[in-house]
């Protein structure tokens, strides 16, 4: 469907490379950006429901470089395919400079740029 929309916009047959040139995220990366948006809101938004809040992973007693950026608790194997599990795994793959963004719009912009670059390298390989 996404390739069909890109074909309509470009006026010719479009491939995944054309979708990326339009600065549209492919489906896999689009799914990840939406998970990351919900993750950021679940961590920092006051309007997010309490029962959907995410648990942060804390390391006590140590001042590590990895503790500068927030990390989410990854639940055990019994809780696979839950929002906490998928959000933690997706969020963990972000670099610390993106996880430390001060507000929602800069976080989303930076994450989208990163995912677009990952899609470019995935498609070109």
Question: Would you mind describing this structure in some detail?
Answer:
The chain is mainly α and 125 residues long. Helix content is 54%, strand content 3%. It contains six helices and two strands. It has a two-stranded antiparallel sheet.
Task: Please outline the helices and strands.
Elements: H1 2-10, H2 16-21, H3 27-44, E1 56-57, E2 71-72, H4 83-92, H5 96-99, H6 104-124
Query: Beta-strand percentage?
Result: under 5%
Give the % helix. Answer: 40-55%
Largest sheet: 2 strands, antiparallel
Category by helix and strand content: mainly alpha
Strand/helix succession: HHHEEHHH
End-to-end separation: 23 Å
Which descriptor suits the 3D outline?
Answer: elongated
- Arithmetic mean of pLDDT: 83
Radius of gyration equals 17 Å
> How many E strands?
2
> Which parts are unreliable, with pLDDT below 50 for 5 consecutive residues or more?
none
If helices are DSSP runs of H or I spanning 4 or more residues, what is the number of helices?
A: 6
Read across the widest sheet, the strand sequence of neighbours is: 1-2
């Amino acid at each position: 469907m996404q390739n069909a929309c890109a074909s309509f916009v470009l006026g010719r047959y479009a491939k995944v490379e054309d979708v990326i040139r339009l600065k549209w995220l492919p489906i896999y990366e689009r799914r990840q950006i939406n998970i990351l948006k919900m993750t950021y809101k679940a961590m920092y938004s006051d309007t997010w429901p309490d029962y959907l809040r995410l648990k942060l992973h804390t390391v006590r007693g140590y001042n590590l470089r990895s503790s500068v950026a927030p990390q989410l608790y990854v639940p055990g194997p019994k809780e696979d395919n839950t929002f906490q599990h998928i959000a933690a795994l997706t969020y963990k793959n972000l670099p610390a400079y993106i996880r430390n963004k001060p507000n929602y719009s800069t976080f989303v912009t930076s994450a989208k740029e990163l995912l677009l670059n990952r899609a470019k390298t995935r498609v070109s390989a």
